[in-house]
Amino acid sequence: MSEVHAARRSWLRARCSAGNGAAVVARPANVRYLVGSAPPGAALLVRAAGGDVLLGHWDPAESPGGPLGELGGPRIVALDGEADPVEAAVALAVEEGAGEVAVEEHDLTVARHRALLAAVPGVELTDLGRAVEGRRVVKDEDEIAALRAAGEITDRALGELLESILVGRTERHLALELERRLVDHGADGPAFPTSVATGSHSGLAGHRPTDRRVEEGDFLTVRLGARFRGYRCRIGRTFVIGTSPADWQIELYDVVFAAQRAAREALAPGVECQAVDRAAREVLTAAGHGKALGPVTGCGVGLEMGEDPRLGPTAMGRLGACVPVTVEPGVHLPGRGGVRIDDTLVVRPSADGGPELLTITTKELLAL
């Protein structure tokens, strides 16, 4: 990947003002995209004149070499004490003749931006904006392979859980077990905090596991994802605990499943992001659950959850090929519970078979 990272930095270098411009990137996912692994809080300095520099605090027990030390990689600067890598990068850029330095203003607090101006008097700061995030939207095949592996790990962990006894166990215990299984199968860790919701909690999008125990007749909603080589995926499934679901559970599940299928089938290069959201929202609205769907039906995934594009009613833009997204509609009925069905897919043209499903655990309403 070192050649890939070098090409990405060359793209960013071309955006810098000719001759004396520079850019400082500090958002962790963007640093990883441009150089590979880096210590937490590191900052990357890219200059129009060349000679990239990665500044950060390395663990004394670890060498800052490895892939980063390869020919053509950025020069490594290990900082002492509590030095701010962004301040150090901006100061170095000015010291070496940069006329202006572009920074990621959206990722800097007001206090940190003021500290930069105070620490480097006279510096001309400009806004890099979300240029790197925009570049990250379309994935190359190596990135998609990492996402595919993350999906396989996630499916495996979830499949093993479904083979175990669930009644009587707490949401918190099940979530911890799922995260352990992700790591056991090769994940760097969970892509986001695992959610297990049972009974009246089921179907809630942002539910944090509690000590509520799984009981017969409950809906059980599970949302998890693996992080593999930095890349993240999401899967969400809903099950019924017991011998068979109640009529209202079957009806609600069928509605959410139909909404999710409509959104998945709408995924194609050139389709408006709004149209994907509308496909799901119209199904739920027709069934009387239109207000239950959250602000978006899905989002982009990669080095972060919640990347661009957003699949929502006010979303701008169109989908492109090789863009991975989630499709995750859900309905929660207060006091009763609900259903969520989430998948991670890669947008592909119909000539290539249409959207590629990365999370393949069955969407059949299983009674566990």
Automatic annotation (TrEMBL):
Gene3D superfamilies per record: Creatinase/methionine aminopeptidase superfamily (3.90.230.10), Creatinase/prolidase N-terminal domain (3.40.350.10)
Residue stretches making up the Peptidase M24 domain: 146-348
Domain Creatinase N-terminal: from-to ranges: 18-138
InterPro entries referenced in this protein's UniProt entry, alphabetically: Creatin/AminoP/Spt16_N, Creatinase/aminopeptidase-like, Creatinase_N, Pept_M24, Peptidase_M24B
Lineage: superkingdom: Bacteria
Pfam family, any one: Peptidase_M24
Protein name, entry field: M24 family metallopeptidase
Organism: Streptomyces chisholmiae
